[in-house]
From TrEMBL:
One of its GO terms (molecular function) is ATP binding. This is Myosin light chain kinase family member 4. ATP binds at residue 128. PROSITE patterns: PROTEIN_KINASE_ATP, PROTEIN_KINASE_DOM, PROTEIN_KINASE_ST. It comes from Athene cunicularia.
Length: 374
C-alpha cells in the first residue's frame, strides 16, 4: 500500500478544490498528529466517573480543564427548529431569504452551499444550491428531499425549506459553524487524540443507527460529509443525502456510485448493498481519524478499487503505534470483505472502544500522574 505524504498545508489546500477523488486523497497527505497529547481530567470529573480515589491519587486537586469525560456526556444539540415535512416551492428563494453570495460554506459535484437568513425570523440557515436542469436531475434532488423528510435525529442535518426553479433546486437547511470533519483533520493546530476519534465515531454511529432503523442507507459516508457542530466540541451532523436510498429487503439494491476510496467491496463488484455497506465506510473513517492514512488509496482509481477488492490493509504503520487494541478490534470488525460479518451500527455502539468508560479514562488521563481508580 503506497502512502502519499505532503508536508505543506498550502499544497493540501491548493489540491482540495480540484475534484472529488483528489479531495478524498488528502488524508494521505496529513502527517500523523501527535498521539502523545492527552487531556487531563478535572478532579470533579474523575470523581464523577470513578470515585474519590481517582481524583485523590496524588493527594492534590487538578484544575478543571476541557475534560473529555464531561464532553462525552453532552449530546449533540438539535436543530433550532422542529422537524419539518418539506416540498419544493415554485417561487424565488429571495422572497423569503437573504442568501449571502460571498459566504460560501462548501461545494461539490452538486453546486455550492451559501449562508442565508430567513427574512421573517432572522434565523441563520444554509442554502444548498443544486444545479438541476432536466427531469432526471430534479428527480434525484427530490429524492434527497424525500429522504431528509424522514430523518429526525440530532446527528443528521435537518431540512427547513426548498425552492425549485428552471435550472436549480435550493435546499434550505440547518446551519452549523464547525466546518467539515475533514477540515478538522488537516488543521495543523488541531491535535486529534484517540479519545477525539471515539467521540466522533460514536456520534456517527448514532446517526447511522437511526438511518438504518428507518431503512435508509446513506451510501456516501466520508469525512467531507460530516460537519462539526463547532470548532471545539466533538459533536457532528451527517450531511449530503443525495445518494441515499431506501432499503427494501425484497428488492435487491445495487449501486454504481460513491467516492472510490470509501466504496465497500460489494459496491465495487456491483453486488447487492445493505446496512453493512455504510458500516464499511465507518471503518475507513475510523482508520483515517486514528492514523491520518487511507487504508485503500492507490496511485489511481483502479489500484484503489483493487486494494478494496483484495481487502488488503493492516496496522503496521508507525502511526498506529500507541493506538489501543480496542480501536484496532473495532476497525477489524468493520473492514471485512464479506458484508454479513461486519458489525451493525447498534453493535458498534456497544463495542468496548465506544462504550468502555474505564478505557476512555485511561486514554484521557496521563498514566503516571492521574491514573484511573478501579
Amino acid at each position: 500500500m503506497k502512502l502519499l505524504k505532503i508536508n505543506r498545508l498550502e499544497e493540501i489546500n491548493a489540491r482540495y478544490n480540484s475534484n472529488r477523488l483528489e479531495k478524498t486523497a488528502f488524508f494521505q497527505s496529513v502527517e500523523k498528529l501527535s498521539y502523545q497529547r492527552t487531556y487531563s481530567l478535572s478532579r470533579e470529573a474523575v470523581t464523577e466517573l470513578y470515585g474519590d480515589a481517582g481524583a485523590q491519587r496524588n493527594g492534590k486537586k487538578h484544575p478543571r480543564s476541557s475534560s473529555r469525560a464531561v464532553r462525552e456526556s453532552v449530546p449533540t444539540p438539535p436543530a433550532p427548529f422542529d422537524h419539518r415535512i418539506v416540498s419544493a416551492k415554485r417561487v424565488g428563494i429571495s422572497s423569503y431569504y437573504n442568501v449571502s453570495e460571498n459566504e460560501i460554506l462548501g461545494g461539490g459535484r452538486f453546486g455550492q452551499v451559501h449562508k442565508c437568513e430567513e427574512k421573517a425570523t432572522g434565523l441563520k440557515l444554509a442554502a444548498k444550491i443544486i444545479k438541476a436542469k432536466g427531469p432526471k436531475q430534479k428527480d434525484e434532488v427530490k429524492n434527497e428531499i424525500n429522504v431528509m423528510n424522514q430523518l429526525n435525529h440530532v446527528n443528521l442535518i435537518q431540512l427547513y425549506d426548498a425552492f425549485e426553479s428552471k435550472n436549480d433546486i435550493v435546499l434550505v437547511m440547518e446551519y452549523v459553524e464547525g466546518g467539515e470533519l475533514f477540515d478538522r483533520i488537516i488543521d495543523e493546530n488541531c491535535n486529534l487524540t484517540e479519545m477525539d476519534t471515539i467521540l466522533f465515531i460514536k456520534h456517527i454511529c448514532e446517526g447511522i443507527q437511526y438511518m438504518h432503523q428507518m431503512y435508509i442507507l446513506h451510501l456516501d459516508l466520508k469525512p467531507e460529509n460530516i460537519l462539526c457542530v463547532n470548532r471545539a466540541a466533538n459533536q457532528i451532523k451527517i450531511i449530503d443525502f443525495g445518494l441515499a436510498r431506501r432499503y427494501k429487503p425484497r428488492e435487491k439494491l445495487r449501486v454504481n456510485f460513491g467516492t472510490p476510496e470509501f466504496l465497500a467491496p460489494e459496491v465495487v463488484n456491483y453486488e447487492f448493498v445493505s446496512f453493512p455497506t455504510d458500516m464499511w465506510s465507518v471503518g475507513v473513517i475510523a482508520y483515517m481519524l486514528l492514523s491520518g492514512l487511507s487504508p485503500f488509496l492507490g496511485d489511481d482509481d483502479n489500484e484503489t478499487l483493487n486494494n478494496i477488492l483484495s481487502c488488503s490493509w493492516d496496522f503496521e504503520d508507525e502511526e498506529f503505534r500507541g493506538v489501543s487494541d480496542q480501536a484496532k478490534d473495532f476497525i477489524s470488525k468493520l473492514l471485512i470483505k464479506e458484508k454479513c460479518w461486519r458489525i451493525s451500527a447498534t453493535a458498534a455502539l456497544k463495542h468496548p472502544w465506544l462504550s468502555d468508560h474505564k478505557l476512555h479514562c485511561r486514554l484521557q488521563v496521563p498514566k503516571f500522574k492521574y491514573p484511573c481508580a478501579f
